[in-house]
Design a protein that fits this description.
34% of the residues lie in helices and 16% in strands. Strand 9, helix 7 and strand 10 form a beta-alpha-beta unit. Helix 1 runs antiparallel to helix 9 and helix 4 packs across helix 10.
């Protein structure tokens, strides 16, 4: 288990360069097609921290489209999901060598809900898009960067995992809240030029923002108490604070930040452009998983919710 967690942590570091920081400028993100906004910036996205829940409790990942439940969708007999097996915690080989991960489990749950036969087609991550367009699979299970080039060839479902920001602080921390008022005057570390840095500068105007050139420098600043808090993507933050690299220095603070500015890195499924029937089928079944709690249960099974949480 420890070896798997270490592997996950290293993989998240690598993947974050591909996915989490794929769009380093808010202004560049806003130049993407307007229809992207319609898919990932739906009514389920909130402004600010979701503070009315336990810090370890996952927020709602999807806006459930009630109207879609009544849409008649042409039956699909089989589905081929294109995945890479080096994308933990979303798609990877477990200790027994079997395909596992959050995206894999969601795909399997969709197939069970729809009562259709599904298979997984393994390809290197960089070949997933070309394999889909060549008809070697029907759906990319997740991990595609949603940029203008992708939207020219593919359509995306609504997200089944939203990109979120979180704060971390040293143990023990006097901080019990993470709103702008609570962090006024505090030193907040960010990665220079990142989406998270731009968002913090826009919303935490009374805090002292400390930019760092690299992720490693920002983490070390937190570990050595040169900053009061560090704001970054929640997933890699969770793996770091609960892993060996942090030397047990730090903890996640209360509050999930689900913002439009982070939504470009949401996890969604991709189909070939114009395949509305399949896209609607996937969204309809994922809505059912969201509505009865199964999606949250799968997320809690594979993702590090509750890792090194601050005691309240």
């Amino acid at each position: 288990m420890r070896a798997l967690q270490s592997r996950m942590s290293r993989a998240v570091e690598k993947i974050s360069q591909r996915l989490i920081l794929s769009c380093r400028s808010i202004h560049a993100c806003k130049s993407f097609p307007v229809r992207l906004l319609g898919l990932v910036c739906v009514a389920g996205l909130f402004s600010g921290a979701l503070s009315g829940m336990s810090a370890a409790q996952p927020p709602l990942f999807r806006h459930v489209d009630a109207a879609l439940a009544g849409v008649t969708i042409k039956p699909v007999k089989t589905l081929r999901f294109l995945v890479s097996d080096d994308f933990p915690p979303f798609a990877y080989r477990n200790a027994a060598g079997a395909l596992s991960g959050y995206s894999i489990a969601v795909a399997q749950a969709i197939c069970a809900e729809a009562r259709i036969r599904c298979t997984f087609v393994i390809r290197p991550w960089e070949q997933l898009r070309s394999a889909l367009l060549a008809g070697r699979g029907d759906v990319i299970a997740g991990g595609m960067r949603m940029d203008s080039a992708a939207f020219a060839k593919m359509d995306f479902t609504r997200p089944y995992l939203k990109a979120m920001g979180r704060f971390a602080a040293r143990k023990p921390s006097p901080l019990s809240a993470t709103d702008a008022g609570a962090l006024a005057g505090r030193r907040i570390g960010v990665i220079k030029g990142s989406i998270h840095a731009r968002w913090i500068r826009a919303h935490y105007t009374r805090s002292r923002i400390q930019p760092y050139d690299t992720l490693a420098k920002a983490r070390e600043a937190l570990r050595t108490a040169r900053i009061d808090a560090f704001f970054d993507d929640w997933l890699r933050m969770a793996y770091w604070v609960s892993g060996r690299a942090s030397r047990d220095c730090c903890q996640l603070l209360p509050g999930w930040f689900v913002e439009r500015d982070f939504a470009w890195n949401d996890l969604a499924m991709a189909v070939r452009r114009g395949n509305d029937n399949l896209r609607q089928l996937l969204d309809q079944k994922m809505d059912a998983l969201q509505a009865d709690g199964r999606l949250a249960a799968l997320a809690a099974r594979f993702l590090p919710f509750g890792a090194a949480e601050a005691k309240r």
